[in-house]
Amino acid sequence: MKSFIKKAYYFIKKDFLIESSYGFNIAMQIIGILFSTITFFFLSRIVNLSGSAELIKYREYFPYVIIGIAFSNYLSVATRGFSQRIRESQITGTLESILLCGVKPKSFLVLSTLYDFLFSTIRIFVYLTIAYFLSTNRFHLDQSGYAIIVIILSILAFSSMGVLSAGFVLMFKRGDPIAIIYSALSYLFSGVYFPVSLLPEPLQILSKILPMTHSLEAIRRSLLTKVKIEDIFPQITALIIFSLIMWPISITIFNLAVKKAQRDGSLSHF
Amino acid sequence: MAILEAKNLNKRFKISRRKIDIILHPFKNTYKDVLNEINFCIDTNGIYSLVGPNGSGKSTLLRILCGILMPDTGSVKINNSPISINPEKVFLISDSEKGFYPRLSLINNLQFFSSLIENSKPGQEINIESLLEEFGLKEERDTRFQELSSGTRQRLAIARAMLFDPQIILFDEITKGVDIKQQQIIYELLYRLKNSGKTIIFATHIMDEIINLSDKIILINDGRLIGFSTYSEIKEHIKQVFDIK
């Protein structure tokens, strides 16, 4: 455990040093958040809440959409981050160097995305802080604990797709359809920008099998309405079931991809 | 006890095909034998050169010896144990132009890789500063990897390997792209490593390195082991393999 924490610290430090070596990179990302938040603040003034019963529940569109955008950061990191890090390290040749140092491929996946998750958490914090001060609707900060439970379960659920996608990149290098299709479906059908209830009936069924739908609903209910933990049990259960089904599949496929790459010598090919 | 034993190593790779062939014969794959029944055993520490023409299977053999590539059949044993049990005993130094983070400084790269050491024994804590001193890297400790010369990169790659204190160090083209002065520095480093009890295997086709550096030569051609002996005993085979009159 001590060894893992040490590695995690150096992986995060390494990624921070690399990111911060690109001049204004980090500052520009934070400024980008500021601009998009303000854009949605003004846009929310023309959104008619009466169009959806689901929106009326949250009283205001602005915090609804900001939570959608902010937490979709985790979706993006979890589904694309793993495969992006694998690909980057294949190109720089560091994947092979790190594996030669005795790091297991699965550990590499986890360690190499820690910085992305950490930076996403900072981005989300910035989004929510701006939304907190601009919104007329009070946030239920006393229920933040519920939101944290949902976030942990969401990251686990989303990451299962990311590991699957990383396996695909190891085998086929480019054009990963898993991350692209899964992200596109999640952004469109899981209520990031608008309530799922506005979708036609068959698409609402599709939205139910996407973990992002349950994740966003539970986080919004935790932060924007008064709830008890039992009220978000259905969403928590859905996220757990998704993880229980997807993780064994993802790990099996990733292990097969690593074995194949070690057999055909393509671990460092790109 | 054998330090390193390669037994019945075979490896073949699938050959990429033209798109039209894939369409016409989707299930017919063609393969190239890269290694064919390679057997050798190293029982004393020293400097061994792995010699063979381009495409003879040198790099593939090195990658199998360090455990990053799996052979189709056969096994590699280090101190009589499978390589999978003691992967930290062997370290491969391949293309030193890659394998580091270009935008990190030399010292940050070394610190990062030192954090990957799994179980450092008590009293064996790594002193990166003394490693910088030993490998003549102190002056460039804060220079980004992408700004380092080829010779410095090669010395950094050796310093990184030493962080893990491996028993066997494998080099794939040790002096590729390095000037004469840097070559001499690297050769001296190799002797120092040998004298400290390490076993070194380096792939090369440079005659000077074969004659002057090697205690023994592992000669391969077309994936087959042609000989494993001293230069004086094997020089005729080397001439044949490289077609030298």
Mean pLDDT of chain A: 88
Helical content of chain B (DSSP H or I, runs of 4+): 25-40%
Shape estimate of chain B: globular
| Helix/strand/pairing category of chain A | mainly alpha
Unreliable segments of 5+ consecutive residues of chain B: none
Number of strands of chain A: 0
Q: How many alpha or pi helices of chain A?
A: 11
- Tell me the number of strands of chain B: 10
Largest interface: A-B, 29 and 34 residues
Beta-strand residue fraction of chain B: 25-35%
SSE string of chain B, helix = H, strand = E?
Answer: EHEEHEEEHHHEHEHEEH
Biggest β-sheet description of chain A = none
Q: Looking across the biggest beta sheet of chain B, what order are the strands in?
A: 6-7-8-3-9-10
Largest sheet of chain B: 6 strands, mixed
N/C terminus separation of chain B: 39 Å
What is the oligomer described by this structure? heterodimer
Quick structural gist:
The complex is a heterodimer of chains A (270) and B (245). With 270 residues, chain A is mainly α.
Provide the descriptors you would attach to this structure in a database record:
heterodimer, A: about 270 residues, mainly alpha, B: six-stranded mixed beta sheet
Describe this structure in words.
- The complex is a heterodimer of chains A (270) and B (245).
- Chain A is built from 11 helices and no strands.
- With 270 residues, chain A is an all-alpha fold.
- The longest helix of chain A has 32 residues.
- Chain B has 245 residues and is an alpha/beta fold.
- In chain B, 32% of the residues lie in helices and 26% in strands.
- In chain B, helix 3 runs parallel beside helix 5.
- The radius of gyration of chain B is 19 Å and the shape is globular.
- Chains A and B meet through helix 1, helix 5 and helix 11 of A and helix 3 of B.
Sequence-ordered SSE layout with sheet pairings:
The complex is a heterodimer of chains A (270) and B (245).
Chain A: H1 2-20, H2 25-43, H3 53-58, H4 61-92, H5 94-100, H6 105-134, H7 144-172, H8 177-189, H9 201-208, H10 211-224, H11 233-264
Chain B: E1 4-14, H1 19-24, E2 31-42, E3 47-51, H2 58-65, E4 73-78, E5 81-82, E6 90-93, H3 106-114, H4 128-134, H5 150-163, E7 168-172, H6 180-195, E8 199-204, H7 207-213, E9 216-221, E10 224-229, H8 231-241
Parallel strand pairs in B: 3-8, 3-9, 6-7, 7-8
Antiparallel strand pairs in B: 1-2, 1-4, 4-5, 9-10
Helix pairs in contact in B: 3-5
